[in-house]
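I wish you would study the pair of lines that follows with an eye to the fold:

===
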Amino acid sequence: MLDHENSYTEKLHLIRMLSDMIWAEPHSREKTSIAHSNLNWNEVILQSAQTKTLGILADAVKMASVELPTEIADEFKKYRSENTARNFNNLAETFSVITVLAAANITAVAFKGSVRSFQVYGGWGTRSSSDVDILVTPETYEKAKFALIEKGYNNVVDPRSKWWHHHLGESPFQKVPKKSTVVDLHFSLQQPGGPFPRNLKYILDHAVQQDFGKRSLFLLNNEDALLVTTIGYGKAVRAGEPWLRQAHELAYVYAKSSSEERAKFETNAAEQGLARLYKEAMNISLKIFDPALQDTKFSKDTLVMILGAFGMSNNVRFFRTKKLWAWTDGGPGIRSIRFLKEIIRVQQSEAALRLSLIHISEPTRQAE
């Protein structure tokens, strides 16, 4: 079953290390399973980089006071330094965009990226961030686009693209030079092939203000931000991409939350039509980072789960359709109707994507 046996051990080591960061208390960190002998650190780092968890791994080994080879310790230090600088740059870009939109009387909320990493992990070097994500209402989306263009931001995709502006509900912008940070302007949180929040207005109305030094930003509250992570998990699963990073956030937030807060997560997911997706995402996140996952004997399902977290699962026939059904909320009648609507929406979005690739000369940058 395993075609990647040479790296499987390192995958399991990586999962255990990230798990220790979630569950280990400060007084017991020196007793965690993180101090492995004869560990192939180069392979662990490769696996971590491929799943975008390198900064989290760096935090984990630092918390556990692991003695690293000098070259590995230097690499972690360099990564954290570069990541911190990049995230501060993205934070500055976030303030710039919010200022432009505020001047046009547009209310905007920052989410994902560096600000979410800070919300969850309390630091700027833990997770990498390649762009800035800004959420506005559908009614102000066009106005926001023009406001950014007037201030020197270029719309990276064709303004006629239905794939971007309708089915994804977003549009990337970038200032000249092209090395500057990409700004993703959203009016929706949807991803074709998976459920999305039913009430965007409620999410925007319940955004929270957070201070960053002498300035502040409106961010998604913790329940809604976790829904966005859940949607990201679904997107990765459907695309056969690694979902270890999303799973770590879900398990980490759950572990640090009270029983009342955990109940709010479930209630909010149900009210937004994401109960089934949230339940699957949270359950598998807690399972893969369960401290009990230390044994050497695993069932077939556990092996499939671990490989899936690294984007290496073997998808069965009609995998995406089956997942869409599994994630669709509602009773027997309404659930079937919603499922059929989603199937149609997926077909329409895929047709729009093909049309944009064939007839419109535009970058094929994937939504993140």
